[in-house]
Specification:
Elements lengths: L4 H19 L13 H11 L15 E4 L14 E4 L1 H7 L4 H11 L2
Antiparallel strand pairs: 1-2
Length: 109
């Protein structure tokens, strides 16, 4: 029985590696935000009049959303960025678990 434990573990690791390797988007490499991101962020919020660009509400927290995602070739230009409240941002990306956790932390629900 013990002689099957090691091969099963190795097979599981190989399968997990292949799954991650084959499902990873080809040609997309996540890059860090630019050094002047805080200035860009502030400018986007000011241009939006300190309101969400979808619902128009003011919020204690604002998220900066890429209209065309960086993974699809979008840039950090002001024309590709918009100011969203956490709830509208979550509605725009409903399956993003990381974003859902951030919104819960900021809004309390």
């Amino acid at each position: 029985m013990n002689e099957w434990l090691i091969p099963a573990w190795i097979i599981l690791m190989v399968v997990m590696f292949l799954y991650v390797y084959l499902t990873h988007k080809k040609g997309y490499k996540r890059t860090a935000l630019p050094n002047n991101w805080t200035q860009i962020r502030r400018r986007v919020i000011e241009n939006a009049g300190f309101r969400c660009e979808i619902c128009g509400k003011q919020s204690a927290y604002f998220h900066i959303d890429h209209i065309i995602p960086r993974s699809k070739g979008g840039t950090n230009d002001l024309s590709n960025l918009r100011c969203l409240c956490p709830n509208c941002h979550l509605k725009h990306h409903p399956y993003n678990r990381k974003l859902r956790g951030l919104v819960r932390k900021q809004t309390g629900y």
